[in-house]
């Protein structure tokens, strides 16, 4: 006989079929286990992501709460400051209103007093002026009685064609205008003496200037008009 092993095709096929069936079962088991592992890993990954998201949001919420608490404290402090400032402003406004009312009252009283004082001063001035004018008029009248003054036309000169009147004081003639030769020298000296005497008295009564440029008869005419 021969020492070579002998094989049966049917036996080989049977054994191959068994190996193939076992291999297919193990492959299915492997796929099943891989699917389970992948599902568990995916679930674990999602759970980890969710946990990290929760931690992040919790941290953000904590920061927001701290920020909110800080803002509340700051807002309360600002409200307190505003309330204090408003209270101070009300007090100052009240004081200012009282001062304004007092000032307005004093201004009205001052205006009234000023108006009354002006009216009183004007009335006093008018009364003083009236009294002064009365006294001046009385003094001038007395002066004119003491030194009679008038205007007259001399009969002889009227016949000669001179119709201009003379200013006469105490019965003697004053020169016409600035012409000292229009009257005799004796009348000129007498009339000018009277005139100087009247002038020296009248300037104190009328508070008038002592110098005149209206001629010899200008002041005499003024005194006659006042009389």
UniProtKB/TrEMBL annotation:
<dbReference type="GO" id="GO:0035493">
    <property type="term" value="P:SNARE complex assembly"/>
</dbReference>
<keyword id="KW-0175">Coiled coil</keyword>
<dbReference type="Pfam" id="PF10186">
    <property type="entry name" value="ATG14"/>
</dbReference>
<protein>
    <submittedName>
        <fullName>Uncharacterized protein</fullName>
    </submittedName>
</protein>
<feature type="coiled-coil region">
    <location>
        <begin position="38"/>
        <end position="81"/>
    </location>
</feature>
<dbReference type="InterPro" id="IPR018791">
    <property type="entry name" value="UV_resistance/autophagy_Atg14"/>
</dbReference>
<dbReference type="GO" id="GO:0032991">
    <property type="term" value="C:protein-containing complex"/>
</dbReference>
<dbReference type="GO" id="GO:0005768">
    <property type="term" value="C:endosome"/>
</dbReference>
<dbReference type="GO" id="GO:0000323">
    <property type="term" value="C:lytic vacuole"/>
</dbReference>
<dbReference type="GO" id="GO:0000149">
    <property type="term" value="F:SNARE binding"/>
</dbReference>
């Amino acid at each position: 006989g021969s020492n070579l092993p002998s094989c049966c095709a049917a036996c080989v096929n049977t054994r191959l079929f068994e190996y193939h069936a076992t291999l297919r079962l193990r492959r299915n088991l492997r796929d099943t286990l891989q699917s389970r592992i992948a599902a568990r890993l995916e679930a674990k990954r999602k759970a980890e992501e969710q946990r990290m998201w929760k931690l992040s949001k919790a941290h953000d919420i904590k920061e927001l709460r701290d920020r909110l608490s800080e803002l509340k404290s700051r807002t309360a402090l600002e409200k307190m400051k505003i309330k204090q400032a408003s209270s101070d402003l009300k007090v100052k406004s009240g004081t200012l209103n009282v001062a304004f009312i007092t000032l307005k009252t004093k201004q009205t009283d001052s205006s009234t007093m000023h108006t009354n004082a002006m009216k009183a001063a004007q009335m006093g001035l008018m009364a003083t002026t009236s009294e002064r004018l009365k006294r001046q008029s009385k003094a001038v009248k007395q002066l004119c009685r003491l030194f009679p003054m008038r205007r007259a036309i001399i009969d002889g000169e009227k016949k000669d064609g001179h119709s201009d009147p003379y200013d006469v004081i105490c019965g003697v003639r004053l020169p016409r205008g600035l012409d000292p030769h229009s009257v005799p020298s004796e009348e000129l000296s007498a009339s000018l003496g009277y005139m100087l005497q009247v002038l020296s008295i009248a300037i104190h009564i009328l508070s008038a200037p002592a110098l005149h440029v209206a001629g010899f008869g200008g002041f005499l005419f003024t005194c006659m008009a006042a009389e």
